[in-house]
Amino acid sequence: MRHKKEGSVMAWMLGLVLGLLCWFGPLTAWAKENVPPAAEMRFQHYTFALLWQPGVCKAWSDVGASCAHMGPRSRASREWSLHGLWASRPEVLVRQQVPDETWWKYGCNWFEPGRPPLPHDSCSALPALKLSPATESRLREHMPMTNNCLDRHEFYKHEVCFGSSPDAYFTQALNLLDKVNASSFTAFVRDHRGEWVRRDALLRAFADAFHGHSDALELRCEQPDGARGGPRREGTVLTEAWITLRADKVADFPAPDSLMAGRKGNCARLIHILP
């Protein structure tokens, strides 16, 4: 009986390990055979997503440790933090008429067998990224939500199927962030912390900083009670800025032809910029 029981336990453990390998396999060693050729993975633009961390800490309910050290003098309360750099639908999905909404839901997991959704708890379910010490240090400084493993979510959802390494992906995103934070647009947001600002004034500040391209900016706001703003419910607390960049010109940002028109945001006419 003992041998039979030990055998059944071993079989159960083997099944568990195999199950975990099936789940983590695409994430730890991406199966390139599941991804179309590089020519079919070309895409038109990036959405460069930035977080206004004070607003995030107020309006989002799932940020946890990322807000533990927030204060008026902290870096994250004086400039934008990194959310992610999101490729638009690759050509293969455009040709297959896969909707934008479907691509945003699945990202790179669209190409995996069974199309499993990325897990909600990235820290426990997604493997840690292999980053150089320099990149990891920059990322922790400019992306507070690494404490929630947002970096893992962003890479595995938005980049792994395009072939870049985590280091290359985040170095590109952080270099873009440095340029935005050095701009007069970020200075305007910082100077108006704690105030209610007209949405048009924020768009005008962006246009003044980036060659008149206010249509490249999508302002994202939420309600202070944690209810996400949407098409039928405009938000008032500034939480994000999404900037649309041409994929073939992203290295030239902030050159005028690196920006392109994106979507309209969901912010109310008056926006609260929290300190």
Automatic annotation (TrEMBL):
<dbReference type="GO" id="GO:0006401">
    <property type="term" value="P:RNA catabolic process"/>
</dbReference>
<protein>
    <submittedName>
        <fullName>Ribonuclease I</fullName>
    </submittedName>
</protein>
<dbReference type="InterPro" id="IPR001568">
    <property type="entry name" value="RNase_T2-like"/>
</dbReference>
<dbReference type="GO" id="GO:0003723">
    <property type="term" value="F:RNA binding"/>
</dbReference>
<dbReference type="Pfam" id="PF00445">
    <property type="entry name" value="Ribonuclease_T2"/>
</dbReference>
<dbReference type="InterPro" id="IPR036430">
    <property type="entry name" value="RNase_T2-like_sf"/>
</dbReference>
<dbReference type="GO" id="GO:0033897">
    <property type="term" value="F:ribonuclease T2 activity"/>
</dbReference>
<comment type="similarity">
    <text>Belongs to the RNase T2 family.</text>
</comment>
